[in-house]
Amino acid sequence: MQSRQGFLPSLDCDTSVPVLVTGATGYIAGWLVRRLLEMGFTVHAAVRNPGLANRMAHFERMRRELPGTLQFFQADLLERGSYTRAMKGCRVVFHTASPMRLAVRDPQRELIQPTIEGTQNVLESANSIDDVQRVVVTSSVAAACGDSADIAKLPGQVLNEEAWNHTSTHKHQPYPYSKTQAERTAWEIAEAQDRWRLVTLNPGLVLGPCVTDHIPEAYSFSLMKKFADGTMKAGVPPYEVGMVDVRDVAEAHLRAGFMPGAEGRHLIFRDVKSLIDVSAVLHAQFESHRPFPRRVLPKWLLWLVGPRTDRAFTRHVVRRNMKHPWRADNSKSRRALGMRYRATEQAITDMFAQMIERGVV
User: CA angle, 20 as apex, 17 and 26 as ends, to 5°?
Assistant: First the structure.
């Protein structure tokens, strides 16, 4: 079965060989598992607790409706060797599991350490399993750029796959720092061996509906909720970033996993949108549902009151991200992976419509 985009003839998809997806209950991973099952793969789904029935109902439906086979394996990011059993027999490993928390009390313990050690543990298991030929790691544009102000210092003032985040630390932007250090760790491990190939994907802000029965604890859902619950009624920050439909991110994983020539890093986004652009889409589609923000807040006001409303929204974050243009080049993903992206407006609409249906907004 093919997706809206379809697969290119050059994809090497031997569905008789199982594949591993780490963090299978996640936002991106859910769509990836679905696509793999549509294609007829046996998917080894690594999750922390397979016994959580409320998080597994959508998988049971996939089992009934789709031609592939789904097998669950218990694994923990911080437990060395816990992915080895799930990885046996797998030619391709999709490592999507990663903590996604912006507001943490102890960034090193709650965010940075689990992200780096999780990547180490998965890739060390790949080193021990002869079957593995390729590992696809879900990174982030945050690993290429920590603050929007950094882009002005790049050649042509455009972000591409050559760029790395050099400004985030465990104190300033700890989430981008965790993604940067984890991806660097992945490349160090990959370059120390020559049996399997590493491909990394660096998505922008991921939007769109989920496949789960519960709304996941993903940043984009909490952001979307703020448009509707009054948090942003006074206005939105002057911030922009590359945005992408979650279904396209899953498609990019498939192509990175099975296109013979796939290599290196890939910025994954459709186009650049501001937060006021997102609000405009919500106004057009759901105006009768909620009073969405209509104006952009001045940077000076955010600098003054931001730290009082959100501990992660420091004055340094405001200074280096608000009203700075975000420009990036996604041509490698289009050229090398053959990506044809959905409209960002559709991702926003589908996502918010699902949140209304689920009663969370």
Answer: 145
H helices within the chain, ranges in order? Answer: 27-39, 57-65, 84-87, 107, 113-128, 174-191, 219-228, 246-258, 275-286, 299-309, 315-321, 331-336, 344-357
Q: Is 179 a catalytic residue?
A: yes
Per-residue pLDDT at 6 exceeds 80: no
For the beta carbon of residue 199, count every other beta carbon within 10 angstroms: 24
Model's pTM, two decimal places?
A: 0.94
Query: 165-200 pLDDT, tens per residue?
Result: 999 999 999 999 999 999 999 999 999 999 999 999
Catalytic residue among 88, 153, 171, 179: 179
Do the domain assignments include residue 5? no
The two structure tokens encoding residue 254: 């498939």
Q: Is residue 6 part of a domain?
A: no
Whether 9 is covered by a domain: the verdict is: no
CA angle 249, 255, 257 (to 5 degrees): 105
CATH of the domain at 202: 3.40.50.720
Q: Could you list the residue range(s) of the whole structural domain that residue 271 is in?
A: 19-357
pLDDT digits (tens, 9 = 90+) for 59-94: 999 999 999 999 999 999 999 999 999 999 999 999
State how many domains the chain has.
1
Furthest-apart CA pair in the chain: how many Å? Answer: 58
For the chain, give the number of residues. Answer: 361
Instruction: Compute the distance between CA of residue 281 and CA of residue 277 in angstroms, rounded to an integer.
Output: 6
